[in-house]
Structure prediction request, 438 residues.
Amino acid sequence: MAEVRWPRYTGIIIALAMCALIGVGIAAVRVSERAEGTRGYAAKQTIFAGVGLGAFAICAAIPYPKFGRAAYPIFALCLGLLLVLGVARYLHHSSWLLPAIRGSHRWINLGVVNVQPSELTKLGYILLLAWYLRLGDHYRHLLGLIPPLLLTLIPMFLILIEPDLGTALLLLPTLYVMLFMAGAKLRHLLGIVAVGTVLTFLPVPQSLGEMGADEQTERRANAYVELDGTVVTALPLAIMELHQLSRIDGWLHQGREDIWQGKGFHLRQSKIVLGSGKLAGSGDWDEAEYYFSRLPDDHTDFIFSIIGGQWGFAGCLGVLALYTLILLFGLEIASSTYEPFGRLLALGLVGLLAAQVFINVGMTMGLTPITGMTLPFISYGGSSLVVNCAALGLLVNVGQRRPMLLARRPFEHREDMRPAPYRPLERSSSGTACEKRA
Prediction:
């Protein structure tokens, strides 16, 4: 595989857009600090940015096939860390090493920083899936889709235990993008979606007798019907925890005034802050500070609202333009890469970034439920920033090393390459003979 001495234009543009987003994130965190009267977050985010740029450089420099050969050990390590957190959650264990923060076991304390294994799992999962799908055509058959689904459901289950619904939901769209582009048959994928849709709305009865008053209220609010002390609800809602049900109800009924004062307060404040920026941002800091200080988690999950409030619609549009730039050039890398593992890796990374941006921006505007999803490169958090920088490093890596193959394009299978049926010679309108094939 030939090496490229000088960076290609795609890698340069992606790196510049990433650095711009990181700069916007640090500035937005500083705005949040000013409104909340806190200190230290922007300085820590700057340190995380330095580590993230180092991870970007390392992942861009090492030939990406080496990461593929290490995919299984990396994925096994991620599952091991998730399993440790799951056991701690099951045993209600909280310690210096495995802290329980807001009732969730998502972090491992390394002293200097808290590491979030679910963030590393996203990258390990894409590496493993791309490495697994790179050869053969087993996934062209319905039974051949079972291994990729299992490779997805296992980490999803462990992440849901923490609980971390937002991160778990990212794996499914990533799986479908990679399977579809690898050549899985559309009717099989649509069939699985149909089965999943039926299971999503499958009615499940639950007895209210063993529930507390708060849980009864939430179960009733999200139920299909209540009959003699039993509520019938959809399967996913039946297994969700109380705070997750509250978020769903707050999202579904966000227009009701009684919701604004309770479970919908967070979303309500987010939309107020977004609207307060108008076209070019808040001109009166006293007014902006009043709104910003009433928005919880504004430096993490709701950082996009701070951007809208401080820099207005123009600021939001600029941030989305930077993401669009990365996604477009990422797709250009994937489309021009004829090596199967590289193409799948690039597609998975682009799909992951797009899903994160869509979910986070959507929940700040009330278009999707609040799931606790960070905004890549902008939200405060070391694990998220470093892993996303490493992901773009791998994307640039693929773009720098696009080998030429003296073979058919990747994921072209035998049944796709059968000769077209022969059609006899036909006369064109000009009277000359021409041979046409279907």
